[in-house]
Amino acid sequence: xxxxxxxxxxxxxxxxxxxxxxxxxxxxxxxxxxxxxxxxxxxxxxxxxxxxxxxxxxxxxxxxxxxxxxxxxxxxxxxxxxxxxxxxxxxxxxxxxxxxxxxxxxxxxxxxxxxxxxxxxxxxxxxxxxxxxxxxxxxxxxxxxxxxxxxxxxxxxxxxxxxxxxxxxxxxxxxxxxxxxxxxxxxxxxxxxxxxxxxxxxxxxxxxxxxxxxxxxxxxxxxxxxxxxxxxxxxxxxxxxxxxxxxxxxxxxxxxxxxxxxxxxxxxxxxxxxxxxxxxxxxxxxxxxxxxxxxxxxxxxxxxxxxxxxxxxxxxxxxxxxxxxxxxxxxxxxxxxxxxxxxxxxxxxxxxx
Length: 353
Prior knowledge:
CATH class of the largest domain: Mainly Alpha
Order of helices and strands: HEHEHEHEHHHEHHHHHHHHHH
Strand order of the largest sheet: 2-3-4-1-5
Largest sheet: 5 strands, parallel
């Protein structure tokens, strides 16, 4: 249903997106919203609402509003499951009334978490009558929505589906991920789609100009375990947690001695923070991500790190990374000790060499 809508630009008046794969729910809702909003040149006819704290009456009031200098309004209600949907007195159901006669100039996109409806799309295929009975028994308003309007479920992906998803998502980014590598990523990172997508973004950053990934690349990015890798090291430094940073770097070196790789990735991290000093005042997260050279999903974490560390820490960090790199190239001293000294000096402490 989604692809035909995106290609044609023809929307149902109301569409509900839900399912266990909440990341796909959010991404798909965002795509639909952006496509529907293309016709609004004024910027006055598109709204994104958070259902938490909203009443159903408030949502329907927005949906019934006429567009201004445009053919239609586009309203996306996130977390619709948080909307207060108490029926009015005398058994009136305002949602059912709206669905029976929706505003022709409004596209209403609803995204929600509905655990009671998990697996309903498969149930509809197996036994439609049984599935419909289950829908009617659901708590208001989801029984009404699933019975009378367009909806798409994003059920939990199985392992084989995750492998296919990773391969396709990598291809969209211009990366080649052989099936064996995708299977390896699932095995190393688990079956959370959101977590896997983050790992793919990290892998793309690690690869730089390269377009093909290997199992070795994945191992170097994820590390010996999900809590001991270069990204967790960055997070520990960003949280100004010296003890955690020391533990992570020690465990990483115990498993695989990749001193120069660690320094390369830390340099990228500190350079991104350095560029954020001037970009932090911007309101457009996409523009901040572009200026800093980081994936959009990491902007909040980087800004938090910038606030905790401050420019002086960042300058010192870059200086100590360069010092550690020069020492590694010019001496035969133990790599772990050099990196431990680097961490100590980053945190403004003199370290025994």
